[in-house]
Amino acid sequence: MDDKTKSSEAGEQAGKGLREAAAKDEAKTESRTGHDLAKGADRFEERSKSSDGKTAEEKQQSKP
């Protein structure tokens, strides 16, 4: 087995582990909050808001 194949397999395993961990964490969060997390573009919008509920675009527009 050459180094390229070995590192590719290691990368595949690492990626699989990350996806499984993310799915587990998402399920935990959904059960804790009592509702499903937003998916796709809605999720991007949800994550782009800061704790005050404003997006970066809204904050930039309010600056003089």
From TrEMBL:
| Natural source organism | Bradyrhizobium arachidis
By what name is this protein known? Uncharacterized protein
Residue ranges of the region described as Disordered: 1-64
Q: Basic and acidic residues: which segments have biased composition?
A: 17-64
